[in-house]
Amino acid sequence: MIRELNETARDLNCGVQLVKSGVLEKYDVKVLGTSTRAIEETEGRELFRKVMIGAAFLR
Q: What is the reported pTM?
């Protein structure tokens, strides 16, 4: 459902919303590959910025 290759923001955001709304859990559908949390971190500019700043401190 949530594609990794040639994905668009619309596809990714749709998949995240399906997870958040409980639809995938209701039908026992598993997300394989990239976690929804990782998708949110890379799609949201402010959250991505915070993750990158945090990563810089880990070095």
A: 0.60
